[in-house]
Amino acid sequence: MSPDPRTAFMEAYAPCHGPFVRYCSAVAYGRMDAEDLMQDVLLSAFQHFGQIRGKDELLHYLVRAARNRSISLWRGMRRSVPLQEAHAARLLADGATAEQITDAGILYRALAKLPSAQRDALVLFEVSGLSMAEIATIQGTTEGAVKTRVSRAREALRRRLAGRTKPLHAALPAIMMILLP
């Protein structure tokens, strides 16, 4: 007897939950609601779960789907001040300081200027906590290429943020981590 499709999906999704939530939170910041993005992607993944060949690679499928969905949503809408205010309110409620929220906004504006492959590699590594090998599989490239992307993204962020008269509140990964739910 085969397991119930919901049970099979939830069993495959359980180890993916943490990295997937962190990735969606980082990708959605200031652009869209992370929970809406996650729900759209999870619904689609559940509906197509039977067609996903490598059930052990569900996280890779979810990340690619979230990236594609976020791009589609972002193209259809301009920067939304009320949404940014909602993110700020959530962060304040979670204990972030006004300075941390300002720093996060500065960081995410700098991240948005990076080439997408570098930005995605950095977010998957620093925020989602994936290994270089996992990111290479998701991005369809080699581990060496991923290491180069992460390194170049870090350097580009350092250059972009170096001209600030006041240094950021904390190290880049620490600021990125305050955005997590």
Task: Give the SSE layout.
Elements: H1 5-13, H2 17-28, H3 34-47, H4 58-75, H5 81-93, H6 98-112, H7 116-127, H8 132-139, H9 143-162, H10 172-177
Helix content: over 70%
Give the helix/strand class. Answer: mainly alpha
Give a count of the beta strands, DSSP E runs of length 2 or more.
0
Range of strand content: under 5%
N-to-C terminal Cα separation, in Å?
Answer: 38 Å
Total of DSSP H or I helical runs spanning 4+ residues: 10
The main pleated sheet reads as: none
Shape: globular
Q: What is the alpha-carbon Rg in Å?
A: 17 Å
Q: What average pLDDT do the residues reach?
A: 79
Low-confidence stretches: none
Order of helices and strands: HHHHHHHHHH
Summarize the structure.
By secondary structure, the chain is mainly alpha-helical. It has 10 helices and no strands. The chain has helices at residues 5-13, 17-28, 34-47, 58-75, 81-93, 98-112, 116-127, 132-139, 143-162, 172-177.
